[in-house]
Amino acid sequence: MEKRNIILGFIIIIVVTFICGFTPWGSFKSEINVFGTMTFSLTLNGFNGSITFMHIKLPNYIIMLLLSLASIIAILNIKKVISIPAIIIYVLFGISLLWIIAGIFIFATKGTVEIGIILMLLCNIFGIILLTKSMSFSKIS
To answer: TM segments (predicted)?
Structure first.
């Protein structure tokens, strides 16, 4: 894979991550019996809500920022503008991946999984694959 294709892949990840902020990540429904049965629905996206994993609560936009930051650092490393060890980029991808997977399990067990968090998962996996492939073009070690 050529260097410019890998950079384009990371740019696509950043754009799709931004778009995911506006798409629904998951929804919950609840019924309350006050004056008859009333049904409420709550839909979360990248700019509202948070995901708690291992007693650590991160707002959804922080997860988006981690994924975008990892992609930006990877681009800058490939272009040789900066030199940050790959382990740091993998950690950023890993942290966002853990919270995305936790969010999917939460939505799957308590509500509905929506397209936004699925796209975030795919972007994260794609980013890790691109980072691994970019190791041959730059000295990210």
So the answer is: 6-25, 32-55, 61-78, 87-109, 115-132
Residue 31: strand pairing partners: 39
Best CA proximity match to 44, nearest among 101, 117, 95, 122? 117
Contact 16, 107 (CB under 8 A): no
Report the C-alpha gap between 35 and 136 in whole angstroms. Answer: 65
d(CA 81, CA 65): 20
* 74-83 per-position pLDDT tens digit: 999 999 999 9
Q: Which amino acid, residue 67?
A: L
For 127, other C-beta atoms within 10 Å of its C-beta total 27
For the chain, the domains span: 3-134
Whole-angstrom distance, CA of residue 71 vs CA of residue 79: 12
pLDDT band at 139 (very low <50, low <70, confident <90, very high): low
Q: What is the pLDDT of residues 13-38, one digit of tens each?
A: 999 999 999 999 999 887 777 777 77
**Which among 67, 57, 41 has a CA at the least distance from the CA of 102?**
57
